[in-house]
Amino acid sequence: MAGRHAAPRRRRYRGPAVRLLPLAPATALLLLFLAGPVAYCVAIAFTDTRLTGQASASFVGFANFRHAFGDDGFRNAVVLTLVFTVLSSLVGQNSLGLALAGLMRRASRPVRTLTGAVVIAAWVLPEIVAGFLLYTFFNRRGTLNAVLEWLHLPDQNWLFGLPILAVSFANVWRGTAFSMLVYSAALAGIPQEIREAAEVDGASGPRRLWHVTLPMIRRSIATNLMLNTLQTLSVFGLIWAMTRGGPGDRSTTLPVFMYDQAFQKSLIGYGTAVALLLLLVGALFSVVYLRLMREEV
Amino acid sequence: MRPATPALLAVAALAAASLTACGEGSGGGDPDTVRIAYQRNTDNKNRIVDDYLAGIKRQFERAHEGKKLELVPIQAAQADYFAKLQQMMRSPKTAPDVVREDTFLIKSDIKAGYLRPLDDKLAGWKDWARFVPAAKASAQGQDGKTYGVPDGTDTRALWFNKEIFARAGLPADWHPRTWNDVLDAARTVAKKVPGVTPLNVYTGKAAGEAAAMQGFEMLLYGTGKDPLYDPAARKWVTSSRGFRDALEFVRTVYAEKLGPDPADALAPNVDGRVATDWLPSGKLAIDLDGSWMGKYWQPAGTRPWPRWTSVMGRVPFPTQNGAAPGAVSMSGGWAWAVSARSAKADLAWQAIETLQTTENATTWTVSDGQIAVRDDVAASHKYLSSMPGVDFFTGLVPYTHYRPALPLYPQVSSAIRDAMEAVTTGDATVVRAAKRYDEELKSVAGAPGVTARER
């Protein structure tokens, strides 16, 4: 007791500078390793820095951004990024994660353990390993076609014909575990009585889901959507390993486009500008989710 | 919270210290070690460069007491190798001392200030007089200084499988005069010998420079003079009639299914599969490719194939409509250069001298299947008897073209590959792909650096 009284008194005599001191190392580290590179990145985006063929870079203002908006390749990448995000994050990971979480609550313990292990294994795999696995799965001479042939079904060539669908599927396969975990926790937080009350009132399964369960886990949905979307927007290794953005530019999402411009075409400045625009797309999605969440409260 | 502060500070200090230590340790560091960076083939059975350099390392360390030669292999596809090398050369801490550069890229890297002029060293080196002038020029900057020592060159032509030709009823001494003759032969193979890919023309982004050079430019340079760059006006040429005709050829090959399946043709390791699988297994009839192919099939090669000398025929690639001189070839090559940020230029030069003794240069030229660029190598019995076809490919030198030796070339080449890929997949028509090439050219070279030439 005496100690608890003594401590605040002693602290009161310290100036604010001293109280902030413990935060200084963390702040310095954040500034150095987080804010530093971001500022550097912003600075490069306004120059014509190239990886080769140029003695020194110069400031070019908004030229890189103007170039981006007039560039067919960039516009194509934006569209594909949106398709990829909506397909794999919103529709795929999110809905499938919720469905899995709901089903697993009703499943028996062994089924739950097994399903959980399998789904999480896909999530724990390093991105590049997952990329190669799914490449061999979708390849023309790969596992999927072997199965289709065994079933006497026509074979597929998605890596070539519909690569954006193939990489979206790969991202769903890899990322569903995260949504499943978030929703498992959220569903577990719904009090049993409410469910029972709804049942007594005669609400059917779908209606219970729509009017009781979903509103109650609304915050988890928003958080999950935001995290999923931001992660999906920045997927690079998976796509690079499976298709390298090709064929043509049928699976060139913004991160792949950015890499291609910066390191294959040596246009570091332009690539960095595209990276900033990608940041902007991420911010837009976040704002939309945050607003959705607020309006429903 | 408070007791944690010193600990945090200590951790931060430690992290900073170890990070900087890392930076120093991995870079220039030891003044007695010279580091050589080169591309290691992504095919793990192919260790031709590695084996050769291991021998050089032994020789160098024996001859220079107390000095060390460290090999820095970069195992990657070609485009990734260049990007990695350029990133390494940007900082003195990571810059290797000696680097192996493709001559198509060297002008660009010279302009970027990555390389050190070697004129002072070359002046006192008697072997420099043995290099042919075209090779010397290939490693020269726009300032007239020389930045690299070439280690060989190459030419390009058609390889064809005589056994498949016999089954298709085509002659063993096949001699196409025009592009159409090539396509007709491919169509005949397609009709008469099912299950065989009639014609391979490299295409698309993944194949890298092979697509632009073995594929597109072999066609383009058969359509007229200076089709890519106008040296008199000093401007890049937008897509001309010849450019579109060359794209149309590529489109025809893939649209008529005369080429490999586009999914295979656009995969990154396609050149390896052509050399070590499709040709030796008799799955491919005609291949537009480089002079070095035989190296894969030699007894010490990646895919020994004793019968290749009798099975594979060679013939020059024709011009579009058979116009004089009737044959086209493209030549490139690689060079050894010294990084501008290396602090050990003297030692680095000594390493290049070791690489370029007559004996080592001959060994390299032979084992890598190169065309000699030095008169002593060219005259050696070992070289002349090394591989059937050396005389054929050396004989193409009068018809050969060099890529525009300019810093912008790599980006132009990249735009060409985009256009090829678009017509290969069928995503764009020839006209549309050519239009996009023009746009990319303008964004790379600037509108004043571009000229149109409509014929």
Automatic annotation (TrEMBL), chain A:
Can you give the residue ranges of the ABC transmembrane type-1 domain?
Answer: 79-289
One GO cellular component this record assigns the protein to is:
plasma membrane
Membrane-spanning residues: 77-101, 113-138, 158-183, 225-243, 267-290
Q: How does it sit in the membrane?
A: Multi-pass membrane protein
A biological process term (GO) from this entry: transmembrane transport
Q: Where in the cell is it found?
A: Cell membrane
Instruction: Give the protein name, as stated in the record.
Output: Amino acid ABC transporter permease
Automatic annotation (TrEMBL), chain B:
Q: What is the lineage of its organism?
A: Bacteria, Bacillati, Actinomycetota, Actinomycetes, Streptosporangiales
Q: Give the signal peptide as a residue range, or say none if absent.
A: 1-23
Keywords annotated in UniProt: Signal
Q: What is this protein called?
A: Sugar ABC transporter substrate-binding protein
Q: Which InterPro entries match?
A: Bact_solute-bd_prot1, SBP
